Structures are given as structure tokens and as C-alpha cells.
């Protein structure tokens, strides 16, 4: 299998001191990362010449764009990166137009800054860091849409590799600088299939047998989402294979030299969460995984989990949550379930911190306190991966909680 790196761009992060010095001219809604490391970012463009592109006829082979957030031991005083700066305004506006967010407000959101900065070479040290493979969502899928989660992990000593999927997400950068757009006709067919299936399934669920039968049927009916899950898993497996098999000579002066490939975890949001589950049962490199708010498509209903896993879910889709109860019931390793009460799907994204009008924000994240929600999500994600990839104590994971905000269930 021939693998080719097409392009490489390097960015970096800033120190709290540098941010403070420029506080009069810089504003960010992204919560400050809790770790001690500064954060660098880097872009990689890979072509899988063993797989033809099937979603679009514009290119021959499947191209994978990976954006990486990673820890560095010290910072460099360079220009601070703006939020969603890699995305054209019309793409971002189109995504949020469905909830009535104006183009002017999108422009204001994009004027915010992250806790990262660009224009500096990679700063290496002697440490190796665990790797988290992250897959964003589908129709709203942008890696920077989860900056608050990804930066927090990197600041605490993880290398987070966000795999993007051309023609399946709103805008995916490419090595030639053009980028790819979502193929909307195919995306809408998937959501039409979801609407029809939801309208006729999950009716008679009085017994365990009925729930299991309905869940299996639901998986078969949502064939488009299941196909996307498997295609994205193939994309991600290609990247994991690349970082595992790249010769040592290619790792010199590279982010790859910092990766602890014996400790790889995976997580994702929406369809990306289902991809994390699929990888957790099919890729032996994965040591722990997190599904963030998605029905678990793929093979897990027939092939139980054998590694530690956590399901983070909102209350926006009770049918998906019920189906997941069946799918994850046969887990053979530690399984955790975290429910964010009164929340909807995008409470697990940066939208939780956006300054939006109340009804618009509630339509995106539910009737919750956004900053509190993203703080809790970050705490549980960090402790889960710290425990299973860094062998650290995890007090949060040892205590079951059921209050007005969350319900957290630990393994028996």
C-alpha cells in the first residue's frame, strides 16, 4: 500500500502570559485549557492510493486531511490563531443558517481567538505522548468546532489527531488548497432515511427480546449512516496504519516522533462517535474509546467491546439512547455511561460557549448552562483517557452521580 504525504503546515500555541499581555485586543469564548502545556497544531494531507474516491468523481483516490493538536514544553510569541479561521465564511454561515444565526454574528464569532498561535516550527522534547484519534460529526463536522475539548486534551499531555472526511463534511481542506464541499444530496438522503425509520420503529418495546429485535432492524434500515461509519473507519484505519508503519527515518524532526503508539485512544462526536466505537472493536491499536452522542452503528451489536469505553450522551434522541443500551450491554471491559440532562446534540461542542440569543442557543444545546456543561465534559473525557492511557488515578470515574445536571454510571 503506497501512502503519500502531500502537504504540511505548522501552527503553535501561546502562553497565558502572552494572552494576558494582549487581553485588551484579544477576546475568546474558548475556555482556558486546564493543563500545563502550551499547544501546537499541525496539518497533514495523506492520499490512500489503494482506495478510489466513491463519494465524488472530482478526484481519483481517497484523500485524508488530519489536523493535530499537541503539547509543547514552551511557547513562541507569534500571532494567535483565530477561531474557525480555516473555513470560508459562506460554509460556516450555511451551517448555522438553519437556526437563524446571521452572517454578521458568524463574522463576530470568527473574530474570536483560540489558545493557539501560528508561524513557528515544531518544538520537540524527549517526551512521548499518548495519541487520541478524534472524528468530528457529519453535517456539522468541523474539527475546530470542538476546539475547547481538543485544546484541553493537548494541554494535558495528549496528541489529538482529528481525521476529516472529504465530501462527507461541510468543508475539508485538501493538499491542493481547493478543499472539498459536502455532497448535500447524499447527506439529505441519509437524514430522510433516519426520519422514515424513526417514524415507524421503536414502538413495541415491552420486553428485552422486542428491544433487541428492533435495534437490529434499526441498524439495517439506517444503511446510509452505517455505510458512512464504515467509510470513516477505513479513513481512520488508514491514518493509524500510516503512523504505525512510517519508517523511523521519516519520524525525525516530526510530530510522529512525539507519539506514544503503544497508547492510542479514540473518540468522536455524532457519526464520529459511532466511528470511535467501530474502531474500538476492529483496530487492535486502540486501547480505550469514547462515543459522544451517537447511535452505535457498525458491528458492535454482534461483536462486544473488549476495551474500556465511555458513552457520553444527551437527551435529544431517546431512541438512540435506548438502542445503545442494547448494543453496549454485552461489553466485556469497563463501560461508563455519562448522560448530560436537558441537553441536545451540540452541547458537546464549542456552541456550549457561544454568546447566542437564548432561544437560538437552546435549539443547539438544550436548556443547560453551556460553560458548566463543557467543563464537565472536559473533566470526564480527560480523566477517562488519563486513567487508561497514562495510568493515572481517576476520582471522577469512581463515583456514580445522579443530579439535576448529569447521570454518571460506572462499571459494576
Walk me through the structure.
The chain has 412 residues and is α/β, with parallel strands linked by helices. The protein is globular. It is built from 11 helices and 15 strands. Helix 9 links the parallel strand 12 and strand 13 (335-340). The protein has a single domain (3-409), classed as Alpha/Beta hydrolase fold, catalytic domain (Rossmann fold).
Q: What is the secondary structure topology, with strand pairs?
A:
Blueprint: E1 3-13, H1 16-21, E2 38-52, E3 61-72, E4 80-82, H2 89-96, H3 103-109, E5 113-118, E6 129-135, H4 147-155, E7 159-164, E8 171-172, E9 180-181, H5 184-200, H6 208-221, H7 223-245, E10 259-269, H8 271-282, E11 286-292, E12 309-313, H9 318-327, E13 335-340, H10 358-365, H11 370-390, E14 401-402, E15 406-409
Parallel strand pairs: 6-7, 6-10, 10-11, 11-12, 12-13
Antiparallel strand pairs: 1-2, 1-5, 2-3, 3-7, 4-5, 8-9, 13-15, 14-15
Features:
412 residues, 13-stranded mixed beta sheet, 11 helices, Rossmann fold
Task: Give a summary of the structure in a few sentences.
By secondary structure, this protein is α/β, with parallel strands linked by helices. Helix content is 33%, strand content 24%. The longest helix is centred in the middle third of the chain and has 23 residues, at 223-245.
Number of alpha- plus pi-helical segments: 11
Helix fraction bin: 25-40%
Q: How many strands appear in the DSSP assignment? A: 15
Mean pLDDT: 83
The overall number of domains is 1
Q: Specify the CATH class.
A: Alpha Beta
| CATH hierarchy: architecture | 3-Layer(aba) Sandwich
Amino- and carboxy-terminal Cα gap:
43 Å
Quaternary state of this entry equals single chain
Report the radius of gyration as a whole number of Å: 20 Å
CATH superfamily: Alpha/Beta hydrolase fold, catalytic domain
Low-confidence stretches: 1-26
CATH fold name, please?
Rossmann fold
Strand content: 15-25%
Q: What order do the helices and strands follow?
A: EHEEEHHEEHEEEHHHEHEEHEHHEE
Strand order of the largest sheet: 4-5-1-2-3-7-6-10-11-12-13-15-14
Structural class per helix/strand content? alpha/beta
Give the biggest sheet.
Answer: 13 strands, mixed
The backbone outline, from C-alpha atoms, is globular
Amino acid at each position: 500500500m503506497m501512502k503519500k504525504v502531500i502537504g504540511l503546515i505548522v501552527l503553535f500555541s501561546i502562553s497565558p502570559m502572552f494572552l494576558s499581555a494582549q487581553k485588551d485586543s484579544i477576546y475568546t469564548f474558548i475556555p482556558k485549557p486546564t493543563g500545563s502545556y502550551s499547544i501546537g497544531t499541525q496539518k497533514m494531507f495523506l492520499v490512500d492510493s489503494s482506495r478510489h474516491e466513491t463519494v465524488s468523481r472530482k478526484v481519483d483516490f481517497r484523500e485524508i486531511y488530519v489536523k493535530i493538536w499537541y503539547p509543547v514544553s514552551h511557547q513562541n510569541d507569534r500571532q494567535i490563531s483565530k477561531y474557525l479561521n480555516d473555513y470560508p465564511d459562506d460554509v460556516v454561515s450555511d451551517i448555522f443558517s438553519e437556526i437563524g444565526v446571521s452572517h454578521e454574528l458568524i463574522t463576530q464569532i470568527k473574530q474570536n481567538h483560540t489558545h493557539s498561535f501560528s508561524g513557528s516550527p515544531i518544538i520537540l522534547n524527549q517526551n512521548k505522548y499518548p495519541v487520541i484519534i478524534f472524528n468530528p460529526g457529519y453535517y456539522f463536522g468541523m474539527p475546530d468546532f470542538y476546539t475547547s475539548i481538543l485544546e484541553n486534551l493537548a494541554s494535558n499531555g495528549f496528541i489529538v489527531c482529528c481525521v476529516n472526511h472529504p465530501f462527507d463534511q461541510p468543508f475539508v481542506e485538501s493538499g491542493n488548497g481547493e478543499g472539498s464541499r459536502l455532497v448535500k444530496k447524499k447527506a439529505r438522503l441519509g437524514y430522510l432515511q433516519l426520519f422514515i425509520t424513526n417514524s415507524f420503529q421503536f414502538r413495541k418495546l415491552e420486553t428485552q427480546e422486542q428491544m433487541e429485535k428492533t435495534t437490529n432492524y434499526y441498524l439495517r434500515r439506517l444503511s446510509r449512516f452505517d455505510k458512512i461509519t464504515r467509510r470513516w473507519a477505513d479513513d481512520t484505519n488508514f491514518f493509524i496504519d500510516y503512523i504505525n508503519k512510517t519508517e523511523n527515518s521519516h519520524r525525525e524532526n516530526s510530530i510522529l516522533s512525539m507519539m506514544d503508539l503503544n497508547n492510542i485512544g479514540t473518540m468522536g462526536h455524532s457519526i464520529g462517535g459511532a466511528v470511535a466505537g467501530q474502531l474500538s472493536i476492529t483496530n487492535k491499536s486502540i486501547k480505550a474509546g469514547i462515543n459522544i452522542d451517537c447511535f452505535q452503528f457498525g458491528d458492535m451489536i454482534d461483536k462486544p467491546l473488549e476495551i474500556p469505553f465511555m458513552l457520553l450522551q444527551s437527551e435529544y434522541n431517546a431512541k438512540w439512547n435506548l438502542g445503545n443500551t442494547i448494543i453496549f450491554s454485552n461489553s466485556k471491559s469497563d463501560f461508563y455511561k455519562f448522560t448530560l440532562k436537558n441537553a441536545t446534540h451540540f452541547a458537546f461542542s464549542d456552541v456550549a460557549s457561544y454568546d447566542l440569543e437564548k432561544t437560538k442557543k437552546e435549539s443547539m444545546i438544550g436548556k443547560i448552562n453551556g460553560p458548566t456543561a463543557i467543563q464537565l465534559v472536559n473533566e470526564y473525557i480527560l480523566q477517562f483517557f488519563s486513567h487508561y492511557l497514562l495510568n493515572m488515578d481517576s476520582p471522577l470515574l469512581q463515583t456514580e452521580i445522579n443530579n439535576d445536571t448529569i447521570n454518571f454510571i460506572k462499571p459494576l
